[in-house]
Sequence to fold (246 residues):
Amino acid sequence: MAHILVTGSTDGLGRGAAEALLEQGHHVVVHARSDSRGEVLRPLVDRGARLVVADLGDRDAVTALADELNALDAPLDAVIHNAGLIRGAAMMPVNVVAPYLLTALVTAPTRHVYLSSGMHKSGTASVLGDVDWSGSRETGSYSDSKLFVTAFSAAVARLRPDLRSNAVDPGWVATKMGGAGAPDDFELGHRTQRLLALGELGDVSGAYWFHEEQQQQPHASVGDEGFQGEVLAALERETGVALPRG
Ligand SMILES: NC(=O)c1ccc[n+]([C@@H]2O[C@H](COP(=O)([O-])OP(=O)(O)OC[C@H]3O[C@@H](n4cnc5c(N)ncnc54)[C@H](OP(=O)(O)O)[C@@H]3O)[C@@H](O)[C@H]2O)c1
Fold:
């Protein structure tokens, strides 16, 4: 049985992934932004999940979460970096900085799955230099944030051959973010993340997946090593934390 953290598991796709993994008998670490939001995870905790709490828009809280995860009795096998926001000042911190810090600081997991979006294809690589990563004001778009985290996923795959790093477009799914009328299938929306976290889609790293387990071609900048390096440099400079190289 695998030991998997799903960030942002109070709702939507993260909750769907966490519930399905628990159902299959895996050891699941569920995550909420606050103690009060953690209350909605009580049914999962009652079924054996472990709850961790951290506001991913708060860098100190993310660092403390990494310390807590590193101190777990059993090491994590995988992280599904699922938590996300579609707008607001915390969007870049939650969508990009938190996955970066958890990847750099949590030592055990060998499989990382990053939630991308089909919308990353309309992201603009050149806005990278104008992003305020601190969360004090909204900069860039949701599409930009998903372009950056998808490029980061590809950079991890390239620089850390010891890890398996993949990005997933879950489709347009009916959640708080996706809206009630979203047309794609909810179960398929979290299935690929689970299979990647379990290592059940082959020994693949650096791929961009659509929700029905198809590898697709991402935005051209994702595979651009120069752009990947710029994303890494921006995040390293901003956080003071370097991504360990394999
Ligand atoms: N739904 C879609 O159609 C779609 C399409 C493409 C990509 N995605 C991506 O899929 C992922 C999941 O999306 P979803 O549709 O399931 O969204 P959702 O229903 O809005 O759920 C987002 C999750 O992230 C958590 N979260 C947000 N901000 C947080 C913070 N500051 N600290 C800790 N947790 C935080 C939320 O916590 P609360 O419950 O407390 O708010 C919730 O658990 C996201 O990365 C999203 O960008 C979704």
Remarks:
- The pocket of NAP is lined by residues 8, 10-14, 33, 37, 55-57, 82-85, 90, 94, 115, 117, 170, 172-173, 175-178, 182 (CB under 6 Å).
- The longest helix spans residues 142-159.
